[in-house]
Design brief:
Layout lengths: L1 E3 L2 E10 L13 E8 L3 H4 L4 E8 L5 E9 L2 E5 L7 E9 L2 E7 L7 E7 L6 E9 L8 E11 L3 H5 L4
Antiparallel strand pairs: 1-10, 2-7, 2-11, 3-4, 3-10, 4-5, 5-6, 7-8, 8-9
Length: 162
Amino acid sequence: KPVSGNFKATTTVRTRSQSEPDQPPAAAIRLGGLMARDPASDETRMQNYVHIVVGNGPDGVLAVEHKTTTNNNSVYEAPAWSSSDAQLRICRLGSTYSLYKRPLGSKTWQLASSYERPDLPETLQVGADVYSPNAPPDLRARWSEITFQRVTNPPSCTSDRR
């Protein structure tokens, strides 16, 4: 979805193995979540985005990965997470992107990371992100919904009021 200005995008995402639907993704790098991306990435073939995703991370354990990618060069962390499910949020205030996570049912957002990205344009593509770069993909990601809201200050990034 094209989104301009200051916003927060929030979702609940559940990732599972496609072949064993009652199990989390079994192999490394099977993730789903949210991305805020420069639409020009399609034309330039240079990827520019931030994202936060949950599932089986690069180390082969359940994780919430947060990443910033500038001209195809990524910096990321994927700290271990207790589940293949999470509530995830991206909040943009000016050129600052704050990425949040919390366990399902929790009332408290945890800051996963914050990135300064003055290079990203005013209008971004924001929405669902899923990836599994290794064969076989064996991933199913489900989003309950993705909500978009305007924000005006840092406290509004962690507020759950609609």
